[in-house]
């Protein structure tokens, strides 16, 4: 398998000013009850008629065009595809755009003058590559379009595949049982969640495996275990109902293990997740050796590299630096293709004889859509970790052709939200990791908050922060915090990056310094320079900068120091190694909340990933990954509900889309053959048919 260098620049910090999300949440509080409250039913919700953007001839100022116009062509040309190891240049990332309104992108009526043609056009070279590979492997002509200069999208930023009952997983667990004392009986209890009863699926959206001894004894016990795993306010209640699509979720739950096993057959070497503790070992997989020296960033980049190479080998074509401008339809609304702006060739119309598959991500970096469809993000998150991805291109194009939306207010949060002036703050940045350590953490009343380690059962730290008054909390440190950071025992994305990790074997080249420096201190300095890591020589002065009462802060610090002096935390049972007294000036404080990881609110689909409109399926249009909605129910309050977690659900949905697309292709081919046999002659081929490349090439 050819190796390809991937160097990418981080988004230009500071140029995209974060909106005042707290102020926006006040607007929601005033009007949401009347404007956007949904009934507790399982049907997708309809979209009010939004103002539409006219794509015209492709020269308009749409979000997709802006992102593509500044990019640098870096992918190999047709003749360079096998020798691209050291030829890829650095990708220039364009900041997420802020649209004035949550507008759809209007479709254009196809003129019939096609520049290229394929059976299947996949928009997005992340999880969508699973669909591209499977369709190409079955003989379909596949073209995958990507607006950036490389493959992987948000999917390559992930670490854990939460898989449920794959043969690969069972084999690994049998080996674990033999080597590390896990009982064979316990390993055998790893079941596909698709075998659960529908009523359990409705309450169990957390993408892990129920493996507690005895938890399978009764439906009631299983439901209780599910509630424990989901954490605070993530199970159905009157205030936060789970509006579920059991058929969709069941299909995904079934497809996740099949996807994992397929990836294993293609050459992905899977291993159990180790860095998140024993719980994660039993429900998570990641590529073998990807966690060396505790470095987990972009672990699934290795999975996506295999998928990309296999898709190319199977004959799928790729065009990079090619944002899609609009869907192209006929007068009856059937999707016939896409209009794109390629960085070299300009505006092009591409025909999709069978299907357009939207795999372009969610809405993490489109703040107006978040305000409209995921208001909990506005209330609870300071930042997004999704880099330049998820600018809602595919969702807005789907809305333009009349698609329904589903997955109201459903998103995944983690801790690490910092009060940066930029909305985009990558999860491995030093200031983010600084905020995620077990410091003294208080809410705005001065009450101390518990700390949850990654992989630990019960409410996550993100749930705790999001449940706090005002959702703004504070971590408090003293002058010795750099030494405490150096001694951190936190794992995975909470592990502070140090240059010495490479010496210990960590695969640091997965995360070039242009994206994220390999020294957490650089992020700390950024936070100090931007003023959101505050310091003061006295606690009263620090309280003044924080905007809280000095006596409240002093009392919280005194209680903390008392626990530190005893070496035992009677209140919240902190690990004794976390009990570091706050005594040495200067003193430091940083406001913390949640950071957004993924949105699960998107286009409504059938379990076959066909996009649904008000009058049924929209012919020729499919949506997968975060472009699709409904996999996590609704009103998630930031909990992880997508089956297989984000990347597992995304790739499983693309797996299912391939089945449906291939079936549609077979039907169309059979109908076409029947028509040909009933006619003496066929229509002349299009003039531009010769423009279609030979399969298996990569162009920019």
How would you describe what is shown here?
Strand 10 and strand 11 (335-342) form a beta hairpin. The strands form five sheets. Strands 3, 4, 5, 9, 10, 11, 12, 21, 22 and 23 form a ten-stranded mixed sheet that branches. With 700 residues, the chain is an alpha/beta fold. It has 21 helices and 23 strands. Residues 1-101, 190-244 and 686-695 have low confidence and may be disordered. Helix 3 runs parallel beside helix 10, helix 3 (129-137) runs parallel beside helix 21 (645-677) and helix 8 packs across helix 21 (645-677).
Structural class label: alpha/beta
Taken as a percent bin, the fraction of beta residues is: 15-25%
Question: How would you sum up the global shape?
Answer: elongated
Radius of gyration: 25 Å
- Whole-number mean pLDDT: 77
Question: Helix count, per DSSP?
Answer: 21
Number of strands: 23
Helix content: 25-40%
The major β-sheet equals: 10 strands, mixed
